Amino acid sequence: MANPSNKKTPPKRNAASSANPLSAWWNQQSSAIHFSMERLWFNPVSTWITLAAIAIALSLPTSLHLLLKNMQTLTADKREVPTITLFLKPAVVEQQAKDRAELLSELPEIDNVRVVTREEALADFRKITGFAQTLETLDENPLPHVLILTPRLSLLGDLEMDVAGLSKKLKAYPEVDDVQIDVEWVQRLRGILRIAERIVLVVSVLLGLTVLLVVGNTIRLDIENRKEEIRVTQLIGATNAYIRRPFIYNGVWLGLFGGVLSLVIVHVALLFLVEPVTKLASLYGSTFILSGIDVVMTLKILLASSVLGVIGSWLAVGRYLWQSDDAIK
């Protein structure tokens, strides 16, 4: 019978080897996060200068995009029904104008027709211009009869195409001398906005590159200050991923906090603009309200700023590690 004391006891498992891999990964990440946050505020003056530079670079394209978005609401808003004004020929009498208005009101595309006689137009012209005495010297009323048509938007798909097609149809009537559409300014504004979209895109790309340079230069200076520490960790077997990790998180914080600061700048600027914009809109009889940054746009800005921070720090650390590997070889 074998002596129990001679039996070999099974070796105890190492706690690190028996640990959950996910838990080990999280411990590494949390350690890097904690260290990067401490390192971020190691020099608060330099950090705030960097965050201010990032915030200013991000607030400009955000403001331009917000301005463009508000201007697009002026052309996309179909609550205000466009009108078509028909200027009749001078030879057309009032009864002919009323007959033509009655026929036009029966068209399926037309919702309402209003007749403005030349006498009514002359009276309105006197009130608006103040040339009452000058008009008294004229032998006859020079203004024509006018028909103001309101199209039925429920039957219109593309507002620009259908109203333009309707105006061409109306211009073919023998009594009509000219047709004026009040949505022409919308078409011009949309053309301007298409150009503005390209400009905002170019500015956003250029300022995004600026954020990359700011973050990359900040990380590069931090690497220079910790060069000896990094060299020691490499000598004891630290991997490139281990060295890179805290710098990546540092870039995340720079981009994220810079994005938050840029949102604050944009919101403060909006507070200064709300009152004058509202007054200007009221002068034109509009209920236009300046819209701010919604939740989706906020998340996009924060995500974009964080990604820029990651890319900038990754490039800076990658360049140092590439040079370091070449030096070792």
From TrEMBL:
**Its Gene Ontology biological processes?**
cell division
User: How does this protein lie in the membrane?
Assistant: Multi-pass membrane protein
Query: A Gene Ontology CC term for this entry?
Result: plasma membrane
Specify one Pfam family.
FtsX
**Annotated transmembrane regions:** 45-68, 199-219, 252-274, 295-317
Q: Where is the signal peptide?
A: none
Name the family. Answer: Belongs to the ABC-4 integral membrane protein family. FtsX subfamily.
| Record's function text | Part of the ABC transporter FtsEX involved in cellular division.
Q: What is the name of this protein?
A: Cell division protein FtsX
Name of the encoding gene: ftsX
